[in-house]
Structures are given as structure tokens and as C-alpha cells.
Amino acid sequence: MYQVIASDLDGTLLDADHTVDQFTATTLRELEARGVPIVLATGRHYCDVKGIRDVLGVRAWLVTSNGARVHDPDNRLMHKEDIDPAMARQLMQPEFAEGTHLNAYQDEKWLADRHLDWLADLHQDSGFTFDVVDLKNHSGEGIAKVLYIGEHEHLLQLEARLLEQFGDTLYITFSMPDCLEVMAPTVSKGHALQVVLDELQLPAADCVAFGDGLNDIFLLKTAGHPFMMGNAAPRLMETLPDVPRIGRNSEAAVAHKLRELFELPPLAETVADQ
Predict the structure, then answer these.
(1) Full-prediction pTM beyond 0.90?
(2) Annotated domain spans of the chain
(3) Class for domain 85-183, per CATH?
(4) Which of 8, 48, 212, 216 is catalytic?
(5) 1 vs 147, 202, 239, CA distance in Å?
């Protein structure tokens, strides 16, 4: 039985241009009209995802910063976990940030060490943007996530150094090959999804979930009906080999799968009936 939907955004629900396509938006609106709760679970900032939710046109729950924040459909903060300030300060030093584009998320702010046009372009649906600040001298207070953007090989080396130094005192994961993200140790999309399910009083066994990145591992492990994108990261495929794969995000595969699972009529019929 399917009672709730949880989906990652980039590489999953969003198209190849990191934007919302109309077929996906219409499908989610139909499901919401049937009373199916929707959870958007992403590494993106809460303020960014609010804008994407508006474009989708649904009253979704928001799991953001890989689970460091959970907001309900009325934007009430339901769950929050920050990195220990001393650790956050350490993570933002050149010792780790050198060779990367350093970013950090707070409740209402996205902080970056310099401007990059292409990074701003990824957030065109929401219009949310960053403030350029001197992160190496930041207090470390209120940091939900530290994000390193760079070449994948460099980030793999950085991941190894971070794991060696911090171990399980931090949650370290890739959201995309060029994005290495660090959160508090108890943060994950899976833990945050459980927070939402507890509020909704719905079992994880009845949850459908979709993901494509390493930061989706716990989301897919928590949901009773997980699905992996055809464009998923190879390490995710290796980690969860038994999770069924669907099409690619560029093909609106999540929307197509949802229409199949929930037995929605073909979209042409839906439009014709309106």
C-alpha cells in the first residue's frame, strides 16, 4: 500500500536543467488532491526548496540540508540539527577548503567564499542566492551544513581526510560528484523522513521514495518502497544493489512511476477532463 511519497530533487525529481517540468508538477498536484502527503528531501537549503515547492504547486513537507532541517507544509520548523560550532569552524579553514568552492548553510542564509555564476543558475526556480563572506573567520554558530564544491578526484581525497580525522562524529556524504557535504553525525534524510512519518502517523512501510545520490542512502533504506534513478551514482548502485531502478530524471521518470503506482489516468485524459 502506498500512502506517502518522498523524493530527492536534483538528479531525481528535477529535470536535467535542475528545474521543474510541467508533467511532474501536474502529477504531484493530482496525488496531493487525492490526499497523498509529499516530502521533498534534498541537500538544498530550506529557503531554496520553498521556492521549488511553490513552482510545483503542492503543500509538501520539506527535508532540507540532507535532513538537518524539517519544515511542515506551513513552514513551521519541526526538526533542527547543527554542526558543533568548533567543528564547523575547523571545517571552514583552508586546511580542508583549499582547492574547493566553500559554502555553508544557516537557517535563512546561504554563505559562500566567492561568487560563481553557474552555482547561482542552479537555483533559478527559487531565486534564492548566496552571500559572499569570509567563511574562515566565521563563528561556526548555526551551521546546518558545510559544502565543498570541486573536482571529484580532489573531493574523494578530501572525503578520506575528513573521515580519518572526524570519523563518525560527522555525517559526510556526496550529493553529486562535485559536491561533498558535511553535517552533524545524527543527520540524514532517512532520520528526517522518520520525523515526518511520525508527525503524519504513517508507517515507513507505506512510503514510496526516490533518489539518485549517496546522500539518499538512508532515505531509500527507510522507505518501504524505494526506487533508484537510472542515472544514480555508481556508488549508490553498489551500496543498494537490490533497490529497483527506474528511468532517468531527464525523462520525468519519477512522475511516470508515480502514475503507474497510484494508477493515475494518462495525463492527456486528466487534462481533457478539466
Answers:
(1) yes
(2) 4-80+187-273, 85-183
(3) alpha beta
(4) 8
(5) 37, 11, 26
